[in-house]
Amino acid sequence: MNQVAPTQKSKNTKLRPSDRRQARKKAKINNKGIYLRAIKDAFIKLNPIAAIKNPVMFVVWIGTLITLAVTIDPDLFGPTQQRNPQLFNGILTGILFFTVWFANFAEAVAEGRGKAQADALRSTQAETIAKKLASEGSISEVPSTSLRQGDNVYIVAGDIIPADGEVIMGVASVDESAITGESAPVLKESGSDVASSVTGGTRIISDELIIRVTADPGKGFIDRMITLVEGAERSKTPNEVALTVLLAVLSLIFLFVVATLPAFAYYVQSPISIPVLIALLVALIPTTIGGLLSAIGIAGMDRVAQYNVIATSGRAVEACGDVNTLVLDKTGTITLGNRLAEEFIPINGHSMQEVAYIALIASIFDDTPEGKSIVRLAERLGARLDFDPSRASAVEFSAKTRMSGTNLANGREVRKGAVGAIQGFVRSRNGRETPELDTAYQRVSQQGGTPLAVCLDQEIYGVIYLKDIVKPGIRERFAQLRRMGVRTVMLTGDNHITASVIAQEAGVDDFIAEATPEDKISVIQKEQAEGKLVAMTGDGTNDAPALAQANVGVAMNTGTQAAKEAANMVDLDSDPTKLIDIVSIGKQLLITRGALTTFSIANDIAKYFAIIPVIFAAANLQSLNIMNLTSTNSAVLSALIYNALIIPALIPLALKGVKFRPLTANQLLKRNILIYGLGGLIAPFIAIKIIDLLITAVGLA
Ligand SMILES: Nc1ncnc2c1ncn2[C@@H]1O[C@H](COP(=O)(O)OP(=O)(O)OP(=O)(O)O)[C@@H](O)[C@H]1O
Ligand SMILES: [K+]
Ligand SMILES: [Mg+2]
To answer: Taking every annotated instance into account, which residue ranges of this chain make up the domain P-type ATPase A (predicted)?
Structure first.
């Protein structure tokens, strides 16, 4: 009877990147549907209340309305000398309109996948009938929406779990594919830190459970997930706000620049019409980044979601990009974590039978996978319980005491735990300390295993070897992080030797052994005091304070509710190494935003120098028209067409992110200034010349 196996199995398979990719493929949503919906949404976003949130594009929107007015009445701002002003103004209005619409479209496409995902999640939310347990044990059938926090519910194979909850009794397998996209069933059982929480909307496929409801209807995990993936509550991140302000200020500066032009134009007797001034303004203000900014942010959150990680805010994803230090658990994060009893090592002249017997007694109340595996090994060695366990009492394991055990009816105390902890226990009872213990402890630790000493009162009987191995491939991932300038720190409650062996094997930069839950917080605080941004993963209730303290806290979906609530991200696959992918996505988000901002501003400067000469060229300053553009009108139209088309042209880049390489921030900055800055200066000259030739050829201007 290996009850732990199914959990471990599904846990391990989730680590394989190929599987993860498959899960992502499964999540691939009908792209055609997304585009069709985005086309419609791009029109809805023209509504001024929505439009004003983006100051740069709002300026363009107002410009569109003014040129529309001038198209309808060409003499609106005084008599014009233009030939055929209505055609030119009409075309201009169209281009300006599409500039705004393309920006809306970019945002709508970015939102599309999340909306589709939200729809899929909503379909799991049908009201069900729940079997509510009254305190005296009777069952009544109630609608799932009437359940409240603290209610106890009975669920049996085939039922949809009616609400989020903690398992308080039973072992069962649950199909969580509704949220994880992963079809392998997950084992749920009471008492375990990593497998005791269930999510409303998932389905129990074998056995039965009693759960205590932890969330009122409408406030459960799937409800929160829907709001998050849909982006309904998405607020701008501080970085986005800062950039939006910068872009608005730039727009204001260009507004002044353009406003001074009529005076110069008057001086050289080359008057400029209002529509041309508007066109010039739009060409100069940073419309490219203004139009793509929010799409970049949404796409970043979406990329995280495609990795089956739910971020509670865009800010969390962004913070990932700035992370300097990664704090990781040893057990289950760096190692496979299915620590099972491998061997009993008797010491102090005791026999194997004796150690097995004492270890069995010490573990009869221990619900952890470690405890259960000790019971199994002891029973395999022939140990049997020869008293009524109800007459004994449990001493629960805590990460602080690092021991657990059983108090017997006759007053005797059986304990097992970290060697140091058991030594302390024995010492306080004047027990003897032997070098034999140290030998056994060293032997287990040097293999990277966890040694647990077992004792009866003041007498140590032997050592239990809990075996664990480092996850394959983790070393390369840490090396990759190091190249990105991210330091990794392993934290473990285990002893110094085991910790150093595992740290060495996994290639982490630093480790802290015999760490208490408080140590986790203090490590994070210490790094933060040095001005560093810290990311960590965790699953236990113990981890909740540290998850809240970290700048980026990623909770495992299998973890406790407390951990999930404290974190700003939840990994649906419960794969702690995914933090590494998330950090990469965050970095990529920041790089993409920086690159496109550089490109956009470089573009605007180039456009200025491409069109201004043509405008004044009319005043017999033909030598200024270095690009030899056909006319003022064709130059203005070409610049604006380029300005509009560059937005949809860059949508794929904004959504996918610029290609990411594990380089340090400095190396990346240099590289991007070169590519996007220089590229941004050159591209408009070439594009405007080509468009000018084309529209001249078709006789538009
Ligand atoms: N069920 C248990 N009963 C008795 N002692 C235990 C039990 N589980 C763990 N221990 C001991 O307590 C120590 C601390 O456990 P804790 O869970 O805090 O850390 P860990 O699991 O070793 O490492 P990590 O922090 O990486 O998960 C363990 O190294 C082990 O020596
Ligand atoms: K522009
Ligand atoms: Mg642990």
So the answer is: 128-230
